[in-house]
Amino acid sequence: ILNVEQSPQSLHVQEGDSTNFTCSFPSSNFYALHWYRWETAKSPEALFVMTLNGDEKKKGRISATLNTKEGYSYLYIKGSQPEDSATYLCAFPKSSGDKLTFGTGTRLAVRP
Amino acid sequence: DGGITQSPKYLFRKEGQNVTLSCEQNLNHDAMYWYRQDPGQGLRLIYYSQIVNDFQKGDIAEGYSVSREKKESFPLTVTSAQKNPTAFYLCASKGLLMNTEAFFGQGTRLTVV
Question: Rounded mean pLDDT of A42-71?
């Protein structure tokens, strides 16, 4: 993998369902992996910044894991709510760590 | 309140004109970024800067120019050489440590008429 890739591109779930999506990134020269949530008509906001292999982070019903050796991170949402509807972006700093490159995002829609 | 401000929110430009988008931050961040988003696509990096008076091209720098004369400000000029400038532009800033997050402005929607 040369760049950041996210899957799936979009996801529709029912309220209460748990869901997860994937961010894949180059496993060489790892610096950090960022997750952002971008709600419609708002600015993207950071969820997690992960730097260590095996890292697990949690914020309420949202959690993320990181595997730097194989180059992937999972974002989990437990018991999805309509307010979780947003585009979830991951970002991977390249080179010195300051060229912050984003994936295309996963668009999540949660039906009430 | 600390934050990052982009202006204007909406901008209309005639073909052949240059236009400058403003981005100001008072977070004391060293790094600043400009991204472009097109419908159905992710954020693509145009330019970024790690320090005053220095900046680097991102993945789609052709037709754009930037300056970083002050730490707080990172304006983006969309030149007439940019063949398809209609898009949503986002500015971001970040500290230089690896574990720091980026903060984003509200964005500028540029339309060429």
Answer: 95
Burial-class residue A45 by CB neighbours within 10 Å (0-12, 13-18, 19+): middle
Res. B24 pLDDT band, cuts 50 70 90: very high
Residue B74: count of CB within 10 angstroms of its CB? 29
- What is the phi/psi pair of residue A84, to 5°? -80, -10
Q: Is A29 exposed, middle or buried (0-12, 13-18, 19+ CB in 10 A)?
A: exposed
Using one digit for the tens of pLDDT, what is the confidence trace for B67-94?
Answer: 999 999 999 999 998 989 999 999 999 9
Non-local CB neighbours of A48 within 8 Å, separated by 6+ positions: A34, A35, A57, A59, A64
Closest by Cβ to B105, choosing from A43, A49, A89: A43
**Rounded to the nearest 5°, which phi and psi values hold at A93?**
-70, 130
Q: Find how far residue B16's CA is from the centre of its chain.
A: 20
Provide mean pLDDT across the span A86-109: 87
Among all residues of chain B, which has the CA nearest to that of A33? B99
Which among A51, A98, A104 has CB closest to B42?
A104
Q: What distances in angstroms separate CA B24 from CA B29, B75, B77, one per listed residue?
A: 11, 8, 14
The residue in chain A having the minimum alpha-carbon distance to the alpha carbon of residue B31 is A98
Distance of alpha carbon A34 from the chain centroid: 7
